[in-house]
Amino acid sequence: MVQSLEIACAKEDNPQLRTQWPECFTESDDSDYYSLAYSFMASPKLKRVFGISLEFLRKRGQMRQGVPVVLLQMVEFLDQNGLLQRELFCASGLEARRNELKKSLNSVEFKSFCSDDVHAVASLLILFLRELPYGLIPCWSATQLLRVYTKTKGKDLDLKHAKKVLDSFEPEIYNVLCLLIHFLSRLAAQSHVNHMTSKDLSEVFGPCIFHVPDSRIKPVEQQLCIYLTQQLIDNVTFLLPNTYPPKQTNATLFTDDCPPSSSPASLNVDAAKRMLLSDLGFSRLSVIW
Question: Where does the record place the Rho-GAP domain (predicted)?
């Protein structure tokens, strides 16, 4: 599905699209609207990379090693310059520089990051994930993962079952998740220096990785997703073992998965959160309860 935000971005980036797009053409035209939108968004002429779905970034040739080039650039830069930075994702006051970098990356002007851009790039990484349409793990995929968590009424997390769910994710989602979680695992390994434990990182990235729809129990669902994110980080070698070669699309051959780790861990969950989730009813995520 093409979101209206993506279409607006496409029209902003390409003046020709603004003249070609009928002014009276709206979402109410349904299939014709999305058919035209789809062809526009897949056009390699469009350069914008923020706020664009992984599917369209792939169709435009803006991916390398199965992940968006812009994401790879940011992670590689932070890997080289940010692992030992204290509270990497907690710095403030860098909005102007972050927006400048975003504008550059959305065009053909970008050259490279400067050595003192570490905190700005860290903020930019979070922004990229937040602006993904439907999030990195959309609610329908998050529902599958949360079902594993709730099957035992929150007593523990069956990591073997969770791995099967993760393996079923679309290649674009799986590859980005692998890249991101392995990076966060390396950050957490240096927590004695950078003061960013897996718990700290999960609180920052949980709401960015999982798309939680608005509801009256959204805060509870976000906490569940934060717990799952921490489990991904703490058990990355078991849950997301193969980082390279990347998981392939249906158009190419698949590579064999790496063998799983030996012993899955369990997750003890706050009973109050489980009771609150049960008492308040359901939303698009908690309907799996």
Answer: 52-240
